[in-house]
Amino acid sequence: MKYIAFILFTVMTNAAAQVMLKQGMLSLGPLSFDGVNPVVKVLQVVFNPWVFAGLLTFVISMASHLYVLSKVELSFAYPFLSLAYVAVAVFAYFVFREDLNAYRIAGIAAICVGTILIAQGGAGHASDGAASDKPLQTSGVAR
Question: Quick check: pTM over 0.70?
Answer without folding.
Answer: yes
